[in-house]
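Async update (no meeting this week)

Hi team, since we skipped the sync, here's where things stand on the single-chain job. The sequence we agreed to prioritize is pasted below, unchanged from the tracker. I ran it this morning and attached the output directly underneath so nobody has to dig for it. Comments welcome in thread, and please keep replies under the output.
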Amino acid sequence: MTATVIPVELAEAIINFLYDDPKTLATCSLVCSAWVARTRHLLFWTVHLDSSSSEAFINLLLHPCSTILRHIYRLGIDCSSTSAGDTAPCHSRKIPSEDYLLPFDRFLSAFKRITDLRAIHGTDIQCLRLSNLDWTAYPLQLQSRITTTLARLFPKTTSLGLDQVVLHDMRQLNVSVLRAFPGLERLEARLKFLKYFEYPVALKPGPGKASKLPTGLKEIELVDEGMTTVLGCIAQNSSDSETQDALNVHSLSLKGCTPEMVPCVSGALHALSGSLKTLRLSFLDNRFHEEPAFLLKDTFECLSDKGYLQSLHLDDINLTASPI
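Output:
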C-alpha cells in the first residue's frame, strides 16, 4: 500500500491551528523533519522565563543541535521567583523584595555567550518584556554593563514592556534602559520611581537629552502612579524640543488615572496633539471635581482642533457628574 504524501504547505496550514496547544505541537515535531521548522516556530514564537525555567532554557540553547533561538519573536523575563504560582491580578501585585530577585545580570551574561556563538549580530527578538525588576539594586557599573548587553542581544527589538520595574528617576529610564533599544517603537510601562515616591505628583524632570524619551516611539501605554513622571517628562520637554527632536507618538493609552493626575495628563496630551491619532483613558475613580473635568474638556477640544485624533476611548469616567 502506497503511503499518502501530504504537501508541506498543507501540513503547515493544519499545524497552524495548533498554535495554542504546545503538547500536540511537540508531538507533531517528531513526525518528520519537514514539520520541525513550523512546529518550532509556533512553539518558541513566545517564550516566558522565570527563576524556575531560565536555567533549563539556557541549557537547551547550549545544546549543539539547538535551533530554537532563531524562532523566538517574543521574550518575557520575570525576575521574581514567586511569579509562577502567583495568580493575583497584575495591578495588585507588590514589588518583590531583593531576596526574591532573579539574578538578571547573570542570565543576560549567559544568554550573551550563546548569542555570540549562534547569532553574532544579536537575536531577532522583536518584543521584550521585563517584569518585577529593581534596577536600583544594581551598582552603577553593573547597570552600564547590563545596558550594553541588552543593546548587543536585542538590536531588532521594537516593542518593550516594563512591568513592575523600579527605577530611580526618568534619567535612569532613558540612559539605562531605553537607550539600549535604538529601534524602539512601542513602550508599555508600569513603573515605580523612587525619587518621586514621596510626592503625589512627580516633580518635572529637568531639560536635557538624558530625560527625553526616544523620538522613534509611536505607541505608549502607561499604568498606575509611575505614569505621572513620564507624562510630566513629555510635557516639560516638548516646549524645549526642536522639530527634529519632538515626539511623534500616534497612540497613547493611560490606565489607572486618578483625578490628581489630570494636569499631567492634560499637559502631555497638549504636547502630543500634533501627532496623536488614538487615545485611551481609564480612571480608577469616576467621581471628578469640576476643575479637572473642565481641564480634560479643554484638552479634548484642543485635540479636536488639531484634526489628527481619529479614535478616543474613555473608561470609568463621568464628565457630567456634579462636583461634590
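Quick observations from my side:
The chain has ten helices and nine strands.
The first strand starts at residue 46 and ends at 49.
Reply here if anything looks off.
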